[in-house]
Design a protein that fits this description.
- The chain is about 35% helix and about 20% strand.
- It has about 500 residues and is an alpha/beta fold.
- It folds into 2 domains: about 270 residues, Glycogen Phosphorylase B (Rossmann fold); about 190 residues, Glycogen Phosphorylase B (Rossmann fold, 3-Layer(aba) Sandwich), CATH 3.40.50.2000.
- Strands 1, 2, 3, 4, 5, 6, 7, 8, 12 and 13 form a 10-stranded mixed beta sheet that branches. The protein has a 6-stranded parallel beta sheet with strand order 16-15-14-17-18-19, with helices on both faces.
- α1 crosses α19 and α10 crosses α14.
- The longest helix has 19 residues.
- The structure holds adenosine-5'-diphosphate (ADP) and alpha-D-glucopyranose.
- The site of adenosine-5'-diphosphate has 18 residues, from α1, β14, β15 and α14.
């Protein structure tokens, strides 16, 4: 099976969130299962050519692509995804991608990803490579299925090419003004109230993806059901319901070559389920870095997150006084909305013995927190999948989560009263999106932390779980077959 995997971020080249983790690891697993995969990502100026051994593809050469009436010159640079044979195609268009950031609020944000989507198609044409499936991810690639079926319909190369559209987060939809019709050269008669690309009088890239892709999926089973409701559908639940039969949920996997306490290159002390002593040493190391006193009896709670309302910082703020009164320590890594950045900066200034924060992005620190913290908090309002709570499991870092989307599918509540005779819990979860519910879970976790027998059992339950990609990649192959069936 030939798969063109299209995403606007991928580890190790460019990352703002979990999409990069998925795009950098799922293609490798698909290849192991016998697929031929080519990955397509924009060549942002932050991508270091020498570091990744990029070479210019002369066979493809210059691709003039018209966006908003202006022809932009684009090129393809190639390399291979580490530890695989997956060919990586980086779409180079300096005008759009040399901006210092992956995503921007610039007035031509729509044009950047129109160009990217068209460039992927044009590169495939120049390679004369006819994929069985073009696997699109999130709104930035939402117009691609429409382009394949309409604008490039003339090309026989794509006669049997199907599209799969993966929704990683319905909250980000790529909504722009009607002018996209012109800039993307979308047929005018596709635009009418309630039509396939129209949303509230403008154009929605994500809606186009939902309407035109052959098959759809989200990144956990629970979220695939949630987005069919007005509460979670963010205005697209109705259109999703129309395509309910073609909508699936496949849980993200973990790249255990990168996220594994036994081999993690970022952590000074490696450890495993058989010997957790390294974990305690990592905790000490981490606390020393933040000049917070180490005490093995005080639980350290980690947070690694984009600081946006989706991630539950509203209820964290609500519960802040109660949380800070608990005998706990905190390490927070993230960046995003100013109000939350400010909150965490302030907390670490006023409670330096208790709270450490790093406002920014750091891969190294993300791994260190996973390894050194005792617990990991993820109180998301909604969470399509979520990766850090899954990473936490293998690091023996007990997750505390709101039971929603992928968090509900991957973290099983510890039943300390043993009401159901269950000792299979891997973390602590709560249902209501309130500060009180969040506080109660954290309090429950800290109480259980002091019973070392119980705590070791919870850690063991989590560390024994296997969320490697193999199983999920097999499910993707099933979806590819289903999509393919619609185009033959
Ligand atoms: P989302 O994609 O919604 O942000 P996920 O949990 O799926 O949430 O993935 C987030 C990914 O981004 C994880 O790999 C996490 O470690 C990483 N991450 C988030 N914020 C930071 C940060 N400030 N520094 C380093 N890594 C981060
Ligand atoms: C999105 C979601 C997150 C998911 C990630 C990768 O960013 O917010 O829950 O894990 O995509 O699929």
């Amino acid at each position: 099976m030939k798969i063109a995997f299209v995403a606007t971020e991928a580890v190790p080249y460019a990352k703002t969130g979990g999409l990069a983790d998925v795009a950098g690891s799922l293609p490798k697993e698909l290849e192991k299962l016998g697929c031929e995969v080519k990955l397509f990502v924009p060549k942002y100026s932050s991508i270091d050519e020498a570091k990744y051994g990029l070479h210019y593809n002369w066979d493809i050469g210059e691709m003039p692509i018209r966006v908003n009436g202006i022809i932009r010159s684009s090129h393809v640079h190639q390399c291979t995804l580490p530890e695989s044979e997956v060919q990586v195609n980086l779409i180079d268009c300096p005008h759009y991608f040399h901006r210092g950031r992956i995503y921007t609020n610039d007035a031509d944000e729509d044009e950047r990803f129109i160009l990217f989507s068209k460039a992927v198609i044009e590169a495939l044409q120049r390679m004369q490579w006819s994929p069985d499936v073009i696997h699109c991810n999130d709104w930035q690639t939402g117009l691609l299925p429409l382009f394949v079926k309409d604008n490039y319909n003339w090309d026989k190369l794509f006669d049997h090419t199907a599209t799969l559209f993966t929704i990683h987060n319905i909250g980000y939809q790529g909504r722009f003004s009607k002018s996209v019709l012109l800039s993307a050269e979308i047929r005018k008669n596709l635009f009418y109230p309630g039509g396939p690309v129209e949303h509230d009088g403008g154009i929605s890239f994500m809606k186009a993806g939902i309407v035109f892709a052959d098959i759809l999926n989200t990144v956990s089973n629970k979220y695939s059901h949630e987005i069919l409701t007005p509460e979670f559908g963010a205005g697209l639940d109705k259109v999703l319901n129309l395509r309910k039969k073609d909508l699936f949920g496949i849980l993200n996997g973990v790249d255990y070559t990168l996220w594994n306490p036994g081999t993690d290159k970022f952590i000074p002390y490696k450890y495993s389920l058989d010997d957790l002593s390294g974990k305690l040493m990592n905790k000490k190391f981490l606390l020393e870095r933040f000049k917070i006193p180490f005490d093995s009896k005080v639980p350290l709670i980690g947070i690694i997150s984009r600081m946006v309302a989706q991630k539950g910082f509203d209820i964290f703020t609500e519960a802040i006084n109660d949380l800070m009164n608990l005998e706990t320590q905190w390490l927070i890594l993230g960046s995003g909305e100013q109000q939350y950045e400010h909150l965490f900066r302030q907390l670490s200034q006023t409670l330096p013995h208790k709270v450490g924060s790093y406002i920014g992005y750091s891969d190294e620190l993300a791994h260190l927190i996973e390894a050194g913290a005792d617990m990991f908090l993820m109180p998301s309002r909604y969470e399509p999948c979520g990766l850090n709570q899954i990473y936490s499991l293998i690091y023996g870092t007990v997750p505390i989560v709101k039971s929603t989307g992928g968090l509900a599918d991957t973290v099983h509540d510890w039943d300390e009263l043993n009401r159901y005779g269950l000792t299979t819990g891997t973390g602590f979860s709560f249902n209501e999106h309130t500060g009180h519910a969040l506080y109660t879970s954290v309090e429950r976790a800290t109480r259980n932390f002091h019973n070392q027998t119980v705590w070791k059992k919870i850690q063991k339950n989590g560390m024994e779980k296997d969320y490697s990609w193999k199983h999920s990649a097999e499910k993707y192959i099933e979806l590819y077959k289903l999509a393919k069936g619609k185009r033959s």
